[in-house]
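User: For documentation purposes, I need each entry recorded in a consistent format: the amino acid sequence on its own, followed directly by the corresponding structure tokens. There are two entries in this batch. Please keep commentary to a minimum and don't merge the entries.

Assistant: Recorded as requested. Entry 1:
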Amino acid sequence: MYYSQLLSCIQTPHAVLLQPKTSWSCSNSSIAGTRAGKCTIRQTYDICYVLRHEHEHIQKNPNASLIRLGIGDTTQPIPEIITQAMAEHVHGLSTIQGYRGYGAEQGNMALRKAIAGKIYQGMGIKADEIFVSDGAQCDISRLQMLLGPNVTVAVQDPSFPAYVDSSVIVGQAGELEEETGNYGNIIYMNCGPHNNFFPDLSTTPRTDIIFFCSPNNPTGHAASWQQLKQLVEFAKANGSIIVYDSAYAAYITDESPKSIFEIPGAKEVAIEISSFSKFAGFTGVRLGWTVVPEELLYSNGFPVIKDFNRIVCTCFNGASSIAQAGGLACLSPDGYQALCNVIDYYMGNAKILVDAFSSLGLNVYGGKNAPYIWVQFPGLSSWDVFNQILEKTNIVTVPGRGFGPGGEEYIRVSAFGQRERILQASRRLKKFL
């Protein structure tokens, strides 16, 4: 525990929703049926599962030159101005003057101020409302710990699987429906070309929590200002909390909002999670943040930020000081410009891949505001398409079904990669598909 924060952390968590559902009951049967362990987390975008297919393909084709456009891992080196800052911090730890031990669980205040000033400029977000972490995916689980099992949940369909899988783990999801692969207590908000990748909120049931990612992983769609205004108004009318994932906001190239807090009133209904992973190539360094506005209150008027602060102080000793030194360098003028250059490189890759699939007469989405291309193969199983592309072209993608039922017929293709490999992938696709 960072002792200067101790008093602010000693509070009793208030498990009260914005609008409690007194009739709701939840069973942990969605996690395990017996002591031996009957897991019912369905097979989604499981990295190990994709890697297993990849390994089996290599075993059958040992001379194949594989191009990996599946798992969304960055490939370009972190700019030296950023790694130099981390190296200097590491060296300082070997000196009396530079050594530091535990830091604040909520993060280095200088970094929190930098995030507030650079990422949320003009939005009224305070440094004290920002919690620095070891990544957005970890923060999803911490938020789920805060929310507990007795809440109802809605997710975009398709969407990043961690929202559903974490809901299963904490006991929110209900029973797995074998025929559909869906969970009975989760509302799947279909988002596809037919509705401009935004759910029909007029037919969406009320839930306590709404997970929403923009730009969306896997579709690459960035919600417009008007769409997010509808979402905020929907949450206000229903007493819901939006958990907004903006991990890919730095890739937005048009006028789409980069934060939910660009929308008036969002601070009363939303929590935002974000990350340096894809923005700065920190997938291995691990650094992210969560914004919990002071205006976000439970139905009894108690601030949500106080409970989240308790969760953070109990379950987390703070992000690495080395990673945070890198985060500060990322947000410096020179560091930020260097990262923008890397993002432009990836988006150049995305354009090459979009052009390749489009030339084949396929329906292609994404690649404009996110480093993902979402390609439709009407009438076909996404796993069959994944396997066919792997066998014919030696290119690894991700089956869309892994992101939810709305991902069937689609594959997700990552633009993270070296330019020559992207060009080679383009040539293979045009030749063999």
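Entry 2:
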Amino acid sequence: RPPPGYYAALNNGESANIAVGNEFNFGDEEALTRWQEQAMAAAVAEPTLSQALSGPDAVEWQEAIDYEISQLEKLGTWEVVNAP
């Protein structure tokens, strides 16, 4: 489970990317531990919307959802039309 504030940090532009480049030094124990933790976190399935909004991080999930929707609206990603 991510630490408190993790999802809010994503809203502020922090990246969830765990890509490892060729320059990664596996001799660096601290970096290796962080990489392993991130890899394990990526292997855990994300909760369903219902689970997320009823869990202990519900407020952060809702903030992230609201942010994503506001960005989609801001960018004009879709257009509301009448059903055929």
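Summary note for entry 2:
The helical segments are 6-11, 29-43, 49-54, 58-74.
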